[in-house]
Design brief:
Number of helices: 7
Order of helices and strands: HHHHHHH
Distance between the termini: 48 Å
Number of strands: 0
Mean pLDDT: 79
Strand content: under 5%
Shape: globular
Length: 174
C-alpha cells in the first residue's frame, strides 16, 4: 500500500524539510518531526481527514434516526433484547466500542477541526454505562447543541427533539 503513497510521501518529506528550516516553526513542531517519520505523519494526517469526513456523514445519519423523545424520556433501552445472548453480547461490545471511538474522536475534536460536542453526544448515545442518560441530557440541553441538532433534523424533514427538561419546571444549570 505504501507504493501508492510514494508521490505524496516525497511531497510531505520535501514540505517537512522546507518547514523544518524556517525560523517561525516552533521547537515543539520541530521536535515532533524528529520522532515521527514522514510515512507515519502522512498516515496520521490521512486518518485525521478520513475521520473528519466520516463524522460529517455519520453524525447526521445517527441524529436523524433517533426518535424525537430520545433525550426527554427517562427509560431503560434494551438493545437487541430479543436476540440470542451471544449475538447480544457481541452486538453490545461492538456498539460500545464504536461509541468509545466516537467519544475519543469528539474529545480530540475539541482542539482539532471537527464537530467535537456533537461527536461526543453520538459516542455517549451509543455506549451503555450508569448515568448515561443524565450525561446525554446535560449535553443536549446546551442551547447551541440543542438548536444545531434540531436545525439538522428540520433540514432532513424530521421532527425536532423534545427538550430534555421540557416536562420539568426548572432546567438544571450546567
Amino acid at each position: 500500500m505504501l507504493y501508492l503513497l510514494k508521490p505524496y510521501l516525497s511531497l510531505w518529506q520535501e514540505l517537512r524539510f522546507t518547514c523544518y528550516g524556517r525560523e517561525q516553526m516552533s521547537e515543539f513542531i520541530a521536535s515532533i518531526f524528529e520522532f515521527i517519520s514522514p510515512e507515519t505523519a502522512f498516515i496520521l494526517t490521512l486518518f485525521s481527514v478520513v475521520a473528519f469526513v466520516g463524522t460529517l456523514i455519520a453524525i447526521p445519519a445517527i441524529l436523524i434516526r433517533l426518535p424525537e423523545n430520545y433525550f426527554s424520556e427517562p427509560q431503560a433501552r434494551s438493545w437487541m433484547a430479543n436476540h440470542h445472548p451471544i449475538l447480544r453480547v457481541l452486538g453490545l461490545t461492538i456498539k460500545n466500542g464504536v461509541g468509545l471511538i466516537f467519544l475519543l474522536a469528539g474529545i480530540a475534536m475539541l482542539v482539532l477541526p471537527g464537530q467535537g460536542l456533537l461527536t461526543i453526544l453520538i459516542g455517549l448515545s451509543l455506549m451503555d454505562f450508569p448515568g448515561k442518560q443524565t450525561l446525554e441530557r446535560k449535553l443536549i440541553a446546551q442551547s447551541t447543541i440543542f438548536h444545531t441538532v434540531n436545525a439538522l433534523r428540520q433540514k432532513c424533514g424530521k421532527p425536532p427533539f423534545v427538550h430534555p427538561y421540557a416536562s420539568q419546571e426548572t432546567t438544571p444549570h450546567s
